[in-house]
Amino acid sequence: MADIIDGKAFAEGLRARVATVAADFEAKAGRKAGLAVVLVGEDPASQVYVRNKGKQTLACGMASFEHKLPADTSEADLLALVDRLNADPAVDGILVQLPLPAHMNEQKVIATINPDKDVDGFHVVNVGRLATGLPGYVPCTPLGCVMLLKDKLGSLSGLDAVVIGRSNIVGKPMAQLLIAESCTVTVAHSRTKDLPAAVRRADIVVAAVGRPEMVKGDWLKPGATVIDVGINRVPAAEEGKTRLVGDVDFASASEVAGAITPVPGGVGPMTIAVLLRNTIVAAHRAADLAFDESAL
Ligand code: NAD
Questions:
Q1: Could you tell me which residue ranges the Tetrahydrofolate dehydrogenase/cyclohydrolase NAD(P)-binding domain spans (predicted)?
Q2: C-alpha span between 195 and 253 (Å, rounded)
Q3: Residue 187 host element (H or E)
Q4: Fold of 29-115
Q5: Contact indicator for 173, 165 with CB cutoff of 8 Å
Q6: Phi then psi for 138, rounded to 5 degrees?
Q7: Nearest residue to 257 via CA among 37, 6, 75, 1
């Protein structure tokens, strides 16, 4: 039976470390580190997520600035708000919650965020920094996955990794991070010819697909470490109820894997914790204060 990688506990520990660093930052800088979150429209999942971000930001001793705009806000008004946040010295990190309403160009909005406040790591400047090994901001979910992997395995150097999914938010930055950790990386996606064969070669499997329980236990190399990014809502046994499952078939995979993240309680809780980590890093850089980022 595989070890369970407890992302919830790791995320709690990370938030506690961020809180300690945030208190130290406030003492040195004479102000709190600040995170601004912009939500356009009333998508229920986004509302929950933004509320949790706000609560956890405050709990870490940082300032939270929430901007909730109606769904019919014009793109020009949203860009003007981002410009104001770019210029506001109390704001170290800016996150515009995606998806945006259809009448807005997400790329244009992301491109307007100052890359040095882009704590989500989606701006092309930060994508380029990650690809070239320069310090910048890395998307929170894949960075959280690497933290869990290193916590479990120590050095990842020389390991074979497969990343299933090639999105800009998870799959591609995940592959870049694993290359930086000296893994041999395969990126699989919807056109991959023989996915089970690609998965079977891997010591590390990261599934970021959005297909419930797609990756089966008999695809895995025995002892592999499995990181399940997927969050899929499926009907539960009880009528009218739903439950969350990942992209990995946990029941069969946990029989073969050496270690595996559960859903929920694996990768999910890491995302906001890493966002807070990125924000306190941004605050130190903005204030030109040194601290050991690797200690987080
Ligand atoms: P996406 O839809 O942008 O990308 C999915 C990727 O899966 C694509 O690159 C596609 O090529 C690949 N794919 C689709 N069908 C496939 C198949 N049959 N075989 C192999 N590859 C296939 O999704 P995303 O934004 O990268 O998110 C992926 C999953 O991770 C979703 O379930 C999402 O909810 C979840 N997610 C979780 C977090 C979190 O834990 N905080 C954050 C982001 C995304």
A1: 139-285
A2: 15
A3: strand 184-188
A4: Rossmann fold (3.40.50)
A5: no
A6: -110, 140
A7: 1
User: Which of 103, 47, 110, 111 has the alpha carbon at shortest distance from 75?
Assistant: 103
CB 91 within 8 A of CB 34: yes
Classify domain 140-269 by CATH architecture: 3-Layer(aba) Sandwich (3.40)
According to CATH, where is 3.40.50.720 located in the chain?
140-269
Annotated binding-site residue numbers: 165-167, 231
Binding residues for NADP(+): 165-167, 231
Q: Across the strands, what pairs with 23?
A: none
Q: What is the Cα–Cα distance from 118 to 137, expressed in whole angstroms? A: 7
Query: CA torsion 280→283→289→291, rounded to 10°?
Result: 20
- Show the ligand 1 pocket: residues with CB < 6 angstroms: 141, 164-167, 169-171, 188-190, 192, 195, 208-211, 229-232, 267-268, 271
Answer for the pair 66, 40: CB distance below 8 angstroms, yes or no: no
Decide if 35 contacts 64 (C-beta within 8 A): yes
Each residue's pLDDT, cut to its tens digit, for the chain (296 residues) gives 999 999 999 999 999 999 999 999 999 999 999 999 999 999 999 999 999 999 999 999 999 999 999 999 999 999 999 999 999 999 999 999 999 999 999 999 999 999 999 999 999 999 999 999 999 999 999 999 999 999 999 999 999 999 999 999 999 999 999 999 999 999 999 999 999 999 999 999 999 999 999 999 999 999 999 999 999 999 999 999 999 999 999 999 999 999 999 999 999 999 999 999 999 999 999 999 998 998 89
